[in-house]
Write a structure and sequence with these properties.
The structure is a homodimer. Helix content of chain A is 42%, strand content 18%. Chain A contains 8 helices and 8 strands; from the N terminus they run H-H-H-E-E-H-H-H-E-E-H-E-E-E-H-E. In chain A, strand 6 and strand 7 form a beta hairpin. Chain A is globular. The N and C termini of chain A lie far apart (48 Å). At the A-B interface, helix 4, helix 5 and helix 6 of A face helix 4, helix 5 and helix 6 of B. The structure holds manganese (II) ion (MN) (4 copies). The site of one manganese (II) ion has 6 residues of chain B, from helix 4.
Chain lengths: 218, 218
DNA sequence: AATATTTTTTAGTCTTACCTAATACTATAT
DNA sequence: ATATAGTATTAGGTAAGACTAAAAAATATT
């Protein structure tokens, strides 16, 4: 059994892990708004519990047990987010903080019954896939808006940044999951885009383009 | 804002408080399966935060702020219990432990929306009243079965002990909230009772009679 | 009133999880 | 090859929340 703090570290390491490259101490510290020395300590603890492999001065990587644990937490987090939006009238920008707390509640039956109650959803309110009971999920084939060229079209399938500010910005411009968009122009000098949404043309910065996932349509 | 541990102490003190009498350190320690020395320390902390009045060697009592806090936690605990039974197919003996965790999730909107989602229930699966948004609730006029005399009748409205073991015992004999019972006989030498339930006659110990609440019918 | 028992507090440790400051290691640039 | 910058670890603290053992206060008993 892991503490809440251990679970939060595991989740962060999992999110930072790309392929086989080790995750660095500073990356974790930055993401968690904590200090590198605190991270070092926790990495030793996680390694001691066989949840992570930790090579001093090199970095860390979750073990299989660690990955399984991360998937369980992510499953809980995302199912609770669906619950909040579908059953309790929350908007997609309000659910993250509460799910951060609910994801640590321990009960397998609770989460499996919740899954059933929600009709076994496969994506959360931000377009992220929900692992099933066994920890499996299909990676959605989506692409960052910033990778597209003039004339490309698609539907928004997810967001990377799930902060209140970003989601409220999207709401303000009537852009959300499922919105159809077309790349009208791309400013090379600042990597910004002009996109056509259902209602209007919208000028979006590189930062925003990086945080939107689309599935392209031909 | 209180820590989870502080909240658990507040809830315990509230449950032990009868009238104006101070709650003793040992009572709290017993109820929480902790040591008296740990309780003393926490009482100082709670007093420092103005959640309890603490008189060394005499005992403690929640302040009004403490009582309000207790009612909020109890409201959350009981609403989650209703949710688990009504929406997620849990039985009344399974919900307590999970509600012990869920009661600490912080979000006023969450709990008010949950209340609405459940149709503003006034009692939880064990017959205990649920405080409303303002912290008010009607005390149910109920009496312990052990206080009744031969010939009295009533309906079960609540249980005091909410342990798995006790609730499963009741289930086994088809006794639950709303069950009609009649006192057939009372053994003075061991304070046990023979009661008539919907299905059969049942011999119950003093301990069980103490843990059942009834509303009598004429 | 004096003694014994029970209750409660204090003193001293431990673990988790954080911090700052100092040190050590790695990578880069001269 | 050495100095330097950047990254990571160690050393030493703090606070919450638990514990055991010892001391003190409140009750109960003779
Ligand atoms: Mn979290
Ligand atoms: Mn999400
Ligand atoms: Mn609790
Ligand atoms: Mn209950």
């Amino acid at each position: 059994m892991q503490t809440v703090s251990e679970e939060n570290y595991i989740k962060t390491i999992h999110h930072l892990q790309k392929g086989e490259v080790l995750v660095s101490t500073n990356e974790i510290a930055d993401k968690m708004n904590t200090k590198a020395s605190s991270v070092t300590e926790m990495l030793k603890r996680l390694a001691g519990k066989n949840l992570a492999d930790y090579i001093p001065y090199k970095g860390t990587k979750l073990t299989q047990t660690g990955v399984d644990c991360a998937n369980k937490i992510i499953r809980k987090h995302r199912l609770w987010e669906v619950f909040l939006v579908e059953k309790l009238n929350f908007t997609w920008d309000e659910v993250h903080e509460i799910a951060e707390q609910l994801e640590h509640v321990q009960s397998t039956k609770l989460i499996d019954e919740l899954d059933k109650h929600l009709g076994f959803p496969r994506i959360d309110p931000h377009g992220d896939p929900i692992p099933d009971k066994a920890g499996n999920y299909q990676e959605v084939t989506q692409i960052q808006l910033s990778k597209l060229k003039k004339g490309d079209r698609g539907k928004i399938t997810g967001v990377i940044d799930t902060s209140k500010e970003f989601l409220k910005y999207l709401d303000k411009h009537n852009v959300g999951l499922g919105s159809a968009v077309e790349i009208m122009d791309r400013e090379e000098f600042d990597q910004s885009f002009i996109i056509k949404t259902e209602l209007k043309a919208l000028h979006i910065s590189q930062h925003i383009a990086n945080n939107l996932y689309l599935k392209t349509t031909i």
